[in-house]
Amino acid sequence: MDIGMLWYDDDGKRQLDEKVARAVEYYRAKYGVQPTECYVHPGMLSANQAGVAGGVRLRPSRTIIKNHFWLGVGENAVAKSAVGKPADGGASRKAKA
User: Fold this and answer.
1) Residue 44 and residue 72: Cα distance in Å, rounded?
2) What is the pLDDT of residues 37-79, one digit of tens each?
3) How is the chain split into domains, by residue range?
4) Is the dihedral of CA 30, 36, 41, 43 positive or negative?
5) Could you give the CA distance from residue 35 to residue 51 in angstroms, rounded to a whole number?
6) Which of 3, 9, 17, 41 is most exposed by smallest CB count within 10 Å?
7) For position 82, what pLDDT does the model report?
């Protein structure tokens, strides 16, 4: 994932799932696309933490500062959405005789 949105939430009263869900909701409203991945600092994930929260896949990354969430659409999701689409954006061209 090269492009994403960085979200900050240090509210100690909220659980990780709720923080991610709020970030996902904002991302979807702002960009009109459902994010598929969320990078978080490994220290934010407990040993029994599910790999999914707020409908996105959680990925640990030491490059992310605690209480920050980097959301975006993963490369696999982008590649899957592009499969089968014409390179010209769907415009049809008929050959002239």
Assistant:
1) 19
2) 999 999 999 877 769 999 999 999 999 999 999 999 988 765 5
3) 5-65
4) positive
5) 15
6) 3
7) 47
Could you tell me whether strands 52-53 and 37-40 are parallel, antiparallel, or unpaired per DSSP bridges?
unpaired
The pair of structure tokens assigned to 60 is 């640990």
Instruction: Report whether 17 contacts 25 (CB < 8 A).
Output: no
- What pLDDT sits at residue 69? 97
**Residue matched to tokens 């702002």:** 30
Query: Which DSSP category does 65 fall into?
Result: P
Which of these, 87, 64, 51, lies nearest to 4 by C-alpha position?
64
Q: What's residue 77's pLDDT? A: 60
Pairing of the two strands 37-40 and 56-60: parallel
